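Entry for the shared binder. Reason: the reviewer on the internal report wants the predicted structure included alongside the sequence.
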Amino acid sequence: MSSVTQNPDGSFQWNCSIDRDYHRRSGWQGLWGILGLCVFVFIIFFIVSRGTIAQNDLWIPLLVIGVILLVALPLLFLWNSAPDPHEQYVMTEYYVKSGYGKSSIYSEFKKTQELVIAQKYIEVTGPDSSNRIYVPEEDMDFVWNFIVKRMPDKVKIRYNKGS
């Protein structure tokens, strides 16, 4: 875990451990997505074959599903077995970003509808996404004040003392 530091461009950056159960729940969403993709492959196969399936043609969707599972299941296992899941955060005047690379989630302050503060995290909810931002305990007041000052007046702010 590292404390919040300011970058040369004026943005702030930190890494923080996240809740393991919260981390694992997102892995389950990935598993359901994989299963949905497998069902989709079978449905497309049945539509293309017009319902007349010879047993020797069944290898086509099974091969596609096998490749999907061969790639996805080890990734889900690694996701679920992470000993210390953590996330990287970047905060600017306009947004807060969590994650790495293409899997990053950006929460623009001007689009925020609800803000929840808990003991270990701040949750920023917009019209199309929710972003849970874990913050080192010693920096929680700074990050919270930075975010609140940039929120529109209409934002609903809740305090979650249980988490």
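Summary line for the report: The beta strands are 5-6, 12-17, 86-91, 95-98, 105-108, 114-118, 121-125, 130-134, 156-160.
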